[in-house]
Amino acid sequence: MAEVQTTETNTARQRVMIVDNSLDLARAIGALFRLEDDLDFVGCAQTGAEALRSVEQDPPDVLVLDLNLPDCSGFTVLERVRLSTPQVKVIIYTGHAAPHLATRARQLGACACVLKGGDFTALVAAIRNA
Predict the structure, then answer these.
(1) Which superfamily does 14-129 belong to?
(2) Residue 66, number of CB atoms within 10 A of its CB
(3) The whole model's pTM is what?
(4) Could you tell me which of 1, 65, 109, 114 has the fewest CB atoms within 10 Å of its CB?
């Protein structure tokens, strides 16, 4: 009987946190991430202050960040994360398709900008490519 050799892939799972003013949306996206073999949903925040506290205490690999937060702009959170925990990759996830927002996000250090309401696979691809 021939021996079958298997190779184990050593792919690291990306720890992903979502920051969105809609907690329901953040949780729904997190549930979808749980279906992906290489993504770990590690939590969500509804405000910039919550997000910054969470990132400081337990930095995720990737932060999916809305621009419209109740207490500050997502750009403010992006700037602070880039200064305090530069290893965290940030993906802007917004409902605004204005090109100048994507340009500003990239200038501030975002890895990608993904439009809400689009195909969920675009967000997953951006996380994997971050």
Answers:
(1) Response regulator (3.40.50.2300)
(2) 25
(3) 0.88
(4) 1
The answer to whether the Cα torsion of 41, 20, 119, 105 is positive or negative is negative
117 backbone φψ class: left, alpha, beta (φ>0; ψ -120 to 50): left
Q: Annotate 4-37 with three-state secondary structure.
A: CCCCCCCCCCEEEEEECCCHHHHHHHHHHHCCCC
Nearest to 96 by CA among 74, 78, 79: 74
**Tens-place pLDDT, residues 100-116:** 999 999 999 999 999 99
Can you give the C-alpha Rg of the chain in angstroms? 16
Query: pLDDT (tens digit, 9 = 90+) per residue, 23-63?
Result: 999 999 999 998 999 999 999 999 999 999 999 999 999 99
d(CA 52, CA 64): 13
